[in-house]
Amino acid sequence: MLEVNGLTAIRDERVLFQDLSFSVQSGDLIQIEGRNGTGKTTLLRIIAGLGDKESGSITWKQESIFSDRDAYHQDLLFLGHQTGVKRDLNAFENLSFYLQMTNQSFAEERSGRLLPRLAWLAVKMSQLLSSLPGNSAAWP
């Protein structure tokens, strides 16, 4: 279970949220809503251990997320609103960079098979889902 207790965040001398408390059980689905600049991303970054809080505590499995960040991050997936793709790198370089960051290897031979599929997917991304074949055998 994730527990947030008394969390306060201040940015540029402005209180984004104060004394925020909630818990999330396994299987729970939560939604965070608010206008731009109200602290939604800040809250998620703090919970992920990527941002600074003014006060409060965050526990995961009854341990502070700050006591063993490596163990906490093994259970965590944080997807921000930006893609993480480096525009000044080509597709292979982006894949290589990601794999290096995650301690994985990627043979050029494998990427030679994968990149044409990614290119095909990029073309299809602008099409409506209803126009794409439902049979995965039709995909390259």
Question: What report would you give on this structure?
Answer:
Residues 135-140 have low confidence and may be disordered. The chain is α+β, with helices and mostly antiparallel strands. It has helices at residues 40-47, 69-74, 91-101, 108-124, and strands at 2-11, 14-24, 55-60, 63-64. A four-stranded antiparallel β-sheet has the order 2-1-3-4, covered by helices on one side. This is ABC transporter. Keywords: ATP-binding, Cytochrome c-type biogenesis, Membrane, Nucleotide-binding, Translocase, Transport.
Write a brief structural summary:
This protein has two domains: 2-74, P-loop containing nucleotide triphosphate hydrolases (Rossmann fold, 3-Layer(aba) Sandwich), CATH 3.40.50; 83-128, no CATH class. The protein has four helices and four strands, in the order E-E-H-E-E-H-H-H. The chain has helices spanning 40-47, 69-74, 91-101, 108-124, and strands at residues 2-11, 14-24, 55-60, 63-64.
Key terms:
disordered C terminus, alpha+beta, 4 strands, Rossmann fold, single chain, 140 residues, 30% helix, 2 domains
